[in-house]
Amino acid sequence: MLKGRGTFWSVHFFCLLLQPFHIIYNMVETLIVSLVIIAAGMLLLLVKVLSRKNGTFSSQHIHDSKAMKERGIHCVMDQDREMRRKGQCTPVECKATTGNVKSMRTVMSHPEKYHVTSAIKLGDYNIGRKDQLLTLPMYMAFLLKEV
Questions:
Q1: Phi-psi group of 55: left, alpha or beta (phi > 0 → left; psi -120 to 50 → alpha; rest → beta)
Q2: Which tens digit of pLDDT belongs to each residue from 66-111?
Q3: Which helix (H) or strand (E) holds 68?
Q4: Reduced to 3 states, what is the DSSP secondary structure of residue 94?
Q5: Which terminal residue of the chain has fewer beta carbons within 10 Å of its beta carbon, N or C?
């Protein structure tokens, strides 16, 4: 009876000793599976690059997409360049509270550099105009479509 009880405790103790190694084994196993998945993905990308003309991928930029061009959707930088060229850029500045619009005044004081002739300030204000700066309450922002 003592022999059987001692065997139970020795096996239990042996299992407790091996438990950290079991955790490490599971971590290594997960790491190896992850590396195999990453390697398979890299291999598929390599096959795709080698099978393409000039070994390059097509551009993923909006202005290179035929579908986007058909819908009239352009890159923000292209839209900004086009608006500045046409002289139709109107910056809109939003203020959470009433306050100074120093950056807007800087832009407005250099029309030759920024090509801006008018601006809109939204915030906790009444409707008003001072020089080329139109001031509107925040709740009227939904009315802005094109100036």
A1: left
A2: 877 787 776 666 666 676 667 667 778 887 665 666 777 777 787 7
A3: helix 66-71
A4: strand
A5: N
